[in-house]
UniProtKB/TrEMBL annotation, chains A, B:
Record's protein name: LacI family DNA-binding transcriptional regulator
Pfam families referenced in this protein's UniProt entry, alphabetically: LacI, Peripla_BP_4
PROSITE patterns reported in the protein's UniProt record: HTH_LACI_1 (PS00356), HTH_LACI_2 (PS50932)
PANTHER family referenced in this protein's UniProt entry, alphabetically: LACI-RELATED TRANSCRIPTIONAL REPRESSOR (PTHR30146), TRANSCRIPTIONAL REGULATORY PROTEIN (PTHR30146:SF152)
Organism: Pseudophaeobacter arcticus
Amino acid sequence: MINKEAIGRFVFGGAIMSKPTLHDVAQAAGVSYATADRVINNRGNVAQKSIDKVRDAVARLDYVRNVAAANLSRKRVYRLAFLIPKGTNAFFNRIRDHIAQVAAHLSIESVSVDIFEVSAFSVDGLSKSIADFCEKDFDGVAIVGLQSALLEAPLAELRARGIQVIGLVSDLPRDFRAAYIGIDNVVAGRTAARMTGMAHAGGHGAIQTFAGSLDARDHAERLDGFREVILADFPHLTVLDPILTKDDPSILRTKTRELLAQQTHVTALYNVGAGNSGLISAISAWPEQRPYCIVHELVAHSRQALVAGHIDLVIDQRPDVEINRAFAVLRALIDQREIPTMPELTPTIYVRDNLPADPLNAIMKAQNT
Amino acid sequence: MINKEAIGRFVFGGAIMSKPTLHDVAQAAGVSYATADRVINNRGNVAQKSIDKVRDAVARLDYVRNVAAANLSRKRVYRLAFLIPKGTNAFFNRIRDHIAQVAAHLSIESVSVDIFEVSAFSVDGLSKSIADFCEKDFDGVAIVGLQSALLEAPLAELRARGIQVIGLVSDLPRDFRAAYIGIDNVVAGRTAARMTGMAHAGGHGAIQTFAGSLDARDHAERLDGFREVILADFPHLTVLDPILTKDDPSILRTKTRELLAQQTHVTALYNVGAGNSGLISAISAWPEQRPYCIVHELVAHSRQALVAGHIDLVIDQRPDVEINRAFAVLRALIDQREIPTMPELTPTIYVRDNLPADPLNAIMKAQNT
DNA sequence: CTGAAAGCGCTTACAG
DNA sequence: CTGAAAGCGCTTACAG
């Protein structure tokens, strides 16, 4: 035990001091407790002279408000909400599950969590949902957003009501949310390209891309990133224009089947969007000579396909990490604290060997025994 | 806003009830507040009859202790410590930095954090450090462990003193710690193998492995996992026995240089251990014809080599995530709560495209302007 | 504009 | 074995 570093202690004149309280501040400033409280919390109705004295004392003593005590005395409940696209999309189901799971633990610490489902990918629907949401009494909300000026008015209304807003997975107009929690989709596309390039080991090839729609910003960004890297670093490879799928599994199935039946020169498939179950079902019928295959988001079917060797790679945005961070960021914003240090969000590469334990699978195993 | 789910509220008879307090429990049980407190916290000196009544009331009301209020009243400080190998190893520097960073934020919430450096990788040193540590007054400690029966006695002593112990990065003897936070190194090796296999695109090849020492459990496990996957799924590839390096960069440099000068049939390099700066410096002298190259842990030099294209892949254990989890788990253990849901630990694959933002780099850029 | 007092849900002596 | 009371650091009426 050679070296020792002490952090987070208050050492004064060699002795460990306890943290200053509002009482100490009031005393040092020569005002009453209540007055000190008023300036600390900007409650108004305080003489400028008092304000200055208190501010000064705060700085001198290095006072920091004890949020836990404050919350206790107010019986505070953090009222949080999530606005998530409704529907059966496996990815958003995963998001919902994790929110519920975290909420169950957090309820112990006086946090209430509501999930609202909004009509998927519709600017009108989302705009109306946000407007409705204004009526409710919440402290903060995480919204799976869209980029549209139509959302600005309802978002401004939320802010006016003191509700903290963050974008989740898909961003809102920049100036109308306090933070964005999600991956950079250009980076995700670049990552997919790097892996595809590596897997060709310098050989020639052509990559068939798939996208739900080029209007979807995340899809377009992934394609851009993908093309950038292939163009710059893998001159032997060609990126074919995307087949548009509306994220519909049956379209993906049909198109993939056609492609494989034609015995084309295609050496790799990359789907930037959803609907992978269709792609997988088509591919698994051609097990012997399938192309290299990358998709996004780890959900039941993509996971299974990875394990079975039908696809090679899944790029995942770790919705569990995103949700955890959304809670932490919302609480910090509501408390007007600094946002805590957290690990960065980066697209995660899964192969069959580094998959996280599968909770569903564990349950099924338990049932079988 | 079609559907709505409320979580974490207490709904009773249609009305939202606030959580029951100890007061409610005492009343329902027909005992005094103090007695209820005694059974909740197992303070002893309570008649069995009272215990039963209180336990019953707790179950009926679904009471859960308010930890924040308890901590406030006790002016509780969580006294946490980390035992980390000393030395200049870039990986452990990263660990130390992140601990300090998290600690700076946590100090606000009455947590004190101390880092103790112990002589690296020495069972004797670690054993003595743990014994010394018993004398100090802490609530919990995370230890970068070793597997040795010699550690059992001092660890038992820690437990006897009510100090919560977890293994971090490298595990302690199973029965003498409450949890282990770190990746599965067999999985890490398997992941490296899968990527190496893919990068050969079905072609033949030979992979030269490097390890610090085969006595190091993590090194041995990574090699095992690596061999397993190559053997099972990549029959065209051969895994060469590891060159032992003591994790010394100069040894790695020399050996790699020799290897490359010999113009061998080696198509890939995989170092399961540390000392990568040596490997990288040797490789970067042969930019045109270098083999495929995988190393562990994202630190300044491996990151730079990835960006420069000298190496292909870094497998990282996300020490930042591990540290965050260590704090959360220690606090849960100390509070005797359930361990909170957190994203799983899985070896992370980095290529040059999905790197997290580099804080150092950002600082240097700022200084240059 | 300012201050004294009760209360948030708990723990800790202290008195029976 | 049991209970009444003060106090943790804050907020919220309420009275001046």
